[in-house]
Hints:
Chain A is α/β, with parallel strands linked by helices. The first copy, chain A, contains 9 helices and 9 strands. In chain A, the strands form 2 sheets. In chain A, strands 1-2-3-5-7-9 form a 6-stranded mixed beta sheet, with helices on both faces. In chain A, strands 4-6-8 form a 3-stranded parallel beta sheet, covered by helices on one side. In chain A, helix 1 links the parallel strand 2 and strand 3. The model of chain A has no long low-confidence stretch (mean pLDDT 95).
Amino acid sequence: MEYISRTDHDGIARVVIRRGKVNAFNDNLIDEMSRTFGELAIDPSVRAITLTGTGKFFSFGFDIPQFLGYSKEQFTRYLTNFTRLYREIFIHPKPVVAMLNGHTIAGACMIATSCDYRVMVSGKARISLNEINFGSSVFAGAVEMLKLLVGHRNAEAVLYSGAMYTAEEAHRMGLVDQVVSEADLESVVDHIARDYAAREPDAFRSIKGLLRRAVAERIEKTERDSIEEFVKIWYSEKTWARLQGKTIHG
Amino acid sequence: MEYISRTDHDGIARVVIRRGKVNAFNDNLIDEMSRTFGELAIDPSVRAITLTGTGKFFSFGFDIPQFLGYSKEQFTRYLTNFTRLYREIFIHPKPVVAMLNGHTIAGACMIATSCDYRVMVSGKARISLNEINFGSSVFAGAVEMLKLLVGHRNAEAVLYSGAMYTAEEAHRMGLVDQVVSEADLESVVDHIARDYAAREPDAFRSIKGLLRRAVAERIEKTERDSIEEFVKIWYSEKTWARLQGKTIHG
Amino acid sequence: MEYISRTDHDGIARVVIRRGKVNAFNDNLIDEMSRTFGELAIDPSVRAITLTGTGKFFSFGFDIPQFLGYSKEQFTRYLTNFTRLYREIFIHPKPVVAMLNGHTIAGACMIATSCDYRVMVSGKARISLNEINFGSSVFAGAVEMLKLLVGHRNAEAVLYSGAMYTAEEAHRMGLVDQVVSEADLESVVDHIARDYAAREPDAFRSIKGLLRRAVAERIEKTERDSIEEFVKIWYSEKTWARLQGKTIHG
Lengths: 250, 250, 250
């Protein structure tokens, strides 16, 4: 593993994303995360998982500069793998707690919404689904998972505005479940993970399935079409120009 | 156009309902609205739409006196066209902001819930789905759109009580998104419409589709049956007597 | 009827569960409730129903000691009848008001969520879906009905924690609709039932169908599988040991 580290203690596995300054998702990172969550699913010693980033970022989302060199086919394959990853986490048999240590942007916010619980650090960090700001769409699964957390109306506000929310603002609408100071982040998340780990695994997995399986099946039916539409808009003249500007300026 | 006026400025089309004192929906008004929204959908100069009424009413809803002379077949055709209209607005490719300038009752409330955003004037105006008060049912689509805004439990309260809500009460449960004074209504709505108009049209249309298309498809499956049941109850002895009383006394 | 009493006044039928100290659900009680609600559905003199328990309990839920002597087939049959009962109440043509006079635990909470309105007594009574605490799962319908009341995120918190909520806590998240003192419970519930009874029955039934029928159909598709999974976990070594401990110690 190049970009993912895993450390276990007391039945809790901590998964840390470590890729450059902003932990942007490229093909390899997604592949490593997918393999890691696959191993965690069948490891009988693991009863709960925490997922976090490094530095000032949980993750900035997609590694856009890299994709500007991709063909449509390559990019479609990347998006197929990315959306499969968040669906894998969404219906993962073990509880997954997101420890949002910093900025959680776009694709990273989708990963966060796929977890069972989100604790976000207070302060300068922002959380956002800002795709519309550079003329991009999102995916069927991202919309459905967001709606589960904040409801339909707030989901419209989040997606149409592309706003960058503070942890407190995100908490008020349900996009994150708890806000804590940087100093307390580790211990609070550890406490929550221990609580989940104390549940009988079969009962947890079964109840999670009842809560999420039907949603996951609904997503699966429309995800592929939404990726196709996403790609079409992504490579449109205007959006492409904005993405290149984004690469140069930030 | 006899009952609808449209004026465009800066990529924003304002659609105004002008039919008598209460802007009640009859066949012609529905037809004109449907044609207008159809034209707006394909007009490349339009990036956002505002929809409002005149005087003290956004609209009172159905033109009940007129329907007392209708056959069941005529009334069924009217309802089919009416429900198609709110579904057209619900999945319209352009953002639609409802400017609720006054009372927004029954069918008019359904039209309001189909829009992307609702700004309501404070004061004496009321918003209501009061069908139950004269022994009438509603439609599948009306229920689904209401649930998106206020959730299942509030939807039950709204529909079972038939209560007339102030703008503030409606805002608290999510039935309207913003409440402003009469003096500020125009400028606030204009500001919101400009915000929507600034979005990249393809991205907006795509995200709106992800948020609403599945709901619209679910509605389409049950709308026709709900119209049939609505008509059956409407022409039942008790409800018919109440509707005639309504015509005579108010 | 051994465990159910019914008294009617002014078009309102009061159904009271009377079975020992805790009103636990066994086969006979479920059968009697099912027959009672079936009769109420077609009794033209009844316009509203109230459902309550006796003493300190609305109901403790399943009669676990009795089930420890059941074969898997017997227990599966019991659960099939129990889940059918809450679905019958969920889509009952008449309004059903739950008067939660005391503790409302596990299966009893599922029955409460199937009603149209819940009034809970303040004080020591608790409401809970605590299945996870003894290593048990729940059912597809129970999850869907809970989500309608409290939303997806709160439903996760309720089910994963197995927490015992006070009436006030339950009210804050929407699990109950109103909290009143023991002294006022009867009169408040009577007032609410009279309000429902004043609605035109056909309109009420039709609107309730639009709000709930699609949910009921979705439940029906997955309920049987969820019962099978529930039974499998119930008879697993660990859960079985906990259930027996529960029987001996409390």
